[in-house]
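ok so for the tutorial part 2 we go from a plain amino acid sequence to predicted structure tokens. step 1 is just haveing the sequence, like this:
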Amino acid sequence: MHVAELWRYPVKSMIGSTVDAVELDELGIVGDRTWAPRDLERGGIRGAKKIGELMQFAARDLPDGHVEITMPDGSTATTLADDVDDRVSAALGHQVRLERLRPADDVEHYRRGAPDGDDPLAEFRAVMGREADDPLPDFSVFPPLIGEFESPPGTYYDAWPLLVMTTAALASLEAALPDSVVDIHRFRPSIVIDTGDDAAGHPEFGWKGRTASIGSAVIDFLDPCPRCVMVTREIDATIPSDRAILRHIIDDLDQNVGSYATIRTPGTVRVGDRVVFS
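step 2 — the prediction. this is what the tokens look like for a chain of 278 residues:
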């Protein structure tokens, strides 16, 4: 097995891009999710679980740590511009402010915003895309801190720093959903591992508790990743909104696609690097 793709997402919930190599530190991919939108209507850092149209925006790194945002209409703005928040908010139809990642000890920055209503379970079902009679995912797979914070302080990740998918998983989704657009942008992986032509299904589900060396880094695999409403979102005209994808994930995949991982040993990972389990 080897690394097929590496993804970096400069702004939380916006489209990212593939890169040839990444540096992994203790918190994740260096340069990944270094900006995020703050909801100026309800407060708190928010992603596409709540503001779905964010997935129609794209972001790319600039050399000075700022980013360039591409709006759904193709126009661009950078975080250096005084009017970037106004332009993003107007295109989004929701008042937001782009904010840069802050240190972990600035805990107020990461605290959750106001709830949508008086029923926290209904709100959780909404962000996870679950119907009233659907099972809920196992809460224990998420870091305990995210009950209080929108993301683990010091990061803009929803939960854990790495999401790993395999080429087998993507092929399995395509085979199971012939009438859907199974596009990798829906699933937002950090690392895509080529498992070879003979692999089928979702082999990463069986890697929980295992450790792998990739390049000069070492990662620990955690639980499979429970998927939320984001996999159903429209990205553009070629990748439309589609509830069937999440329906398959809930009904046939025990609610999961891909697996979480953390970094045991920081290092460099490149496309083509072998994946070696210890």
